Amino acid sequence: MTTAQPLIQARGLVKRFDGFTAVDAIDVAVRAGEAFGFLGPNGAGKSSTMRMIGCVSPPSGGELRILGMDPVRDGPAIRARLGVCPQLDTLDPELTVRENLITYARYFGIPRRVARLRAAELLDFVQLSERADSKVEPLSGGMKRRLTIARALVNEPEIVLLDEPTTGLDPQARHLVWERLFQLKQQGVTLVLTTHYMDEAEQLCDRLVVMDGGRIVAEGSPRVLIEQHSTREVVELRFAGESQEPFASKLDQLGERVEVLPDRVLLYVPDGDAAVAEVTALGLHPINVLVRRSGLEDVFLHLTGRTLID
Amino acid sequence: MVALVLPRLMDVSAASRRSASVAERNVSALKSIYWLLLVSGFVEPLLYLFSIGVGVGALVGDLTLPGGAVVSYAAFVAPAMLASSAMTGSFAETTFNFFGKMKYMKLYDGVIATPVQPFEIALGELAWAMLRGSAYSGAFLVVMVVMDLTTAARAAVAFPAAVLVGFTFGAIGMTIATFMRSWQDFDVLASAQFVLFLFSGTFVPAQAYPTLLRWLVEVTPLYRAVHLIRGITVGGGGWTWLLDIGYLLVVLAIGLFIASRRMSRLLYR
To answer: Does B13 touch chain A if contact means CB atoms closer than 8 Å?
Structure first.
């Protein structure tokens, strides 16, 4: 893979809005066929980055190449090979579900006959065939999202950009979307997605960058990131009382690290059960104990000192 | 201005194909309720023609135009109604509907993620607006011929002129729409449009106004449009129709240029 040219290459990429720096000199390289994630809280600069990659937002500085081309000069040529699922659905409310797909295909210059066939296939793929002739407005959030994903695939793109593909969806709807995205990946489509859900990043991404305040604070596969920035296990303790702080100070010697959240204390340790025994031995009695494996949430907490969803 | 923009489009045929896809979207969105709106746009100038052209015309009698030709008042008013209905038709599409699509439906945020560019969106919407304006104009010209307010041959020449008028006002409307902040701004636009409608040599020759006001009237786009079409349907305009066409073409090019620039700025954030 080292010899292959990355499909997306950013060096020192910057986006500024009226003095505010949304993206602050990031370096990113996305290779063909991988699922690449931008993980971070709201306002981290994920969407601004995605819009620049989608060639609908000119970079304020740095270098950006997509499919070997310049997004400002070659916008139409690049966009012809991208599929975009924006954060907010931009479906056409005056058209039916099917017409949305056919009309969108026409923007890519796809012949109407081909567009009809593809619309039917895609509606089947996202399980919306039964709603083909319905208007967009009465669809549920999950259905709209699936339609937007289908729309992003209408030009058979090489890269699909998904900005928070499952935000606001119920668990069942999320799993359906994940299934479909996984299928796309299996077909060799390069996926680039943003999310503030850890489980989503862990499920879908081969590699990801953690963004905070417009910068990249870590990069790697979910597994490597967890190994590098967290312990194997985490013990979550909840103590009775106004503040968790006084209890936390007594736990300092246990484990590698202690994080205090408003409602619980996180204890980073190699062995969770052994740590729980030590807590009890100290004469502390939390009202709630949970031992779990470390996740990306812990990586983020360690790197930024904040939780992902406030 | 168009000549400045065009070289930036790498492939003109691809660009026009993409513009056509934008117009095509509007055909798909056509629904039965919309036809009612289309009909109302045609009926309005017809009501003015009957009430004022024919009704008030009976009191006014015949008019002697600056060129010396003597025409009935209805024949004088009819071409002005044609020009203003071409304006109304393309304005409706390029101001109100265009603004709604851009600001509220966020339609173009989806479109710009495809190879279609803002200039092509503007051109496509304009082509669609022109179709609507032309439909009004064609129907109105048929009525004029039937009422003996012009000849069939003159009407055939007036049609492309009316199409140009529709195009120009579409470009103006689209430019205005990119500056609109909310629906309230449309009240101001409606007032401005009505003032234009009343004073653009529509019901009285501009020569009837004091010199200064007359000059002011004569530089408005609707006056030039009325002047052009009246010159064709009743005759006797001399060479000044060239001036009218030149004026409308320049305004069209400037409008299209500004509208696509503004759209780029609004959409490519």
So the answer is: no
Q: Is the dihedral of CA B223, B224, B229, B235 positive or negative?
A: positive
Top CATH class of A231-293 equals: alpha beta
Q: Which residue shows structure tokens 């959240």?
A: A261
- How do the domains of chain A map onto residue ranges? 8-221, 231-293
What is the value of ipTM here, to two decimals? 0.84
CB contact under 8 A, B105 and A94: yes
Q: Are B221 and B172 contacting, i.e. CB atoms less than 8 angstroms apart?
A: yes
Rounded to the nearest angstrom, the minimum Cα separation between A252 and chain B is 48
How far B1 CA sits from the closest chain A CA (Å)? 20
- Run of H or E including B218: helix B211-218
Strand partners, A218: A210
CATH class of residue range A8-221: alpha beta
Nearest to A164 by CA among A137, A213, A201, A127: A201
- Pair of tokens at residue A148: 């937007």
Is residue A163 within 8 Å of residue A46, measured between CB atoms?
yes
Partner A contacted by B24 (CB < 8 A): yes
Q: Which residues of chain B have pLDDT under 50?
A: 1, 3-4, 6-7, 9
CB–CB of B226/B200 below 8 Å?
yes
Provide the whole-model pTM: 0.85
